[in-house]
Amino acid sequence: MITTKDGVVWFVDKNANRLIRVEKDHSFTAVVPVDGATSQVTGLALAPDGSIWYSKNTSHRMGRIPASGGKGVEYELPAPNVFTGVIAAASDGRIWYVDPVVNKVGYMTGNGNVITYDAPRENGVPLSPAGIAVAADNSAWVTSVGLNAVFRVDPGSGAFTRYDIATPNAQPGFITPGPNGDLWFIMRAIDKVGRITTGGRITEFAAKVIGLDTLAAGPDGAMWFSSNQDVGRLDARSARVDMFACAGGGGMTVGPDRRLWVLGSGNGQLYEVSRRSEGNAARVAATADARESRTGPASSHGGPIETISADRVAAFVAASGGRVVVQYSSDDPNCGYCVLGNRHYEAFVAAGEPRVKYLRVLYEPWTSVKQSGEAAHVHLLGLPTIVVFDKGRETSRFEGDASVAAMRSKLGL
Asked: 115 vs 78, 80, 179, CA distance in Å?
């Protein structure tokens, strides 16, 4: 989520392959990206000139539109197998991105030129970049799942400097600038928030919650973080954590009213949090209220795939009376198999039978599947998993990623 200088809030609606623009009066406008025929809008960043940049993690594209909406432009990245995840804007106009699948870090200039760097490996283990943020000196800071570290990428030479995280297997993820020029990041596997100075000193803070997702610098000088069902406020000076009940888990930004706005976890709603909320967050508005504006052709979003919540699958299957194919996956770039599997599933569906119903259930972050009661009910052992139902009964399933031909063979379709 981002907030422009004129107080407009933008966020990504992944399920509908569009951007959502929220005005000060809380009215929504859905903006279909420039090329609506390509799917999986993922990253979002605010450039110095006020334009809105976005990435598409299965379409190897990045694009920008004016802050006021209207016609924009979209650029195709040079390599066909690039899966752009989160993006971050530098004050010099560069838009940095990470590609966790092919282990690269790069940036795009305002006119679409791209520079990429091969991320380091150690003993054959890739860096596996997860999050990226830009410091005041325009250096890029990248969290590494594979090497359990944070890396600084020099904006001039592209050289990587490594800073190790003391706790092993921390799974660092989302990273963002904080007060005083430090960078803050989450560590999903150990339920901690980390702070790294531009000199490379790392401090860990216990978050008192599982399922960490994003971070944001609050209007009160504290760092705020979101999880599946809560948001927390971290005072770095005292290490005190205060929790607020909220169906959050998505992006966070300081809204036009100088309060923290949190995107709901898969429910398309926004929530507003303040320290006077008495432990709760107030709903702002929902994406269902949005009217639509287009900057290009209508979106196909992977053809006839319908994205639904896990708790609706059983009812959908029972009511269909026919064959239903369900993919359980994630758009989280930290799940490399999911990113590849999503692309192959879309190709699988495009070549499928029109009489079959195709569904997709997404878990964000991918680790949240462990806390899902619905996932336990269908015996999910991992992501991605495809399950085929016929007349209400499961007939086959396939776990992991594979080619379209292999999927058809294993699923009997």
From this structure: 10, 15, 29
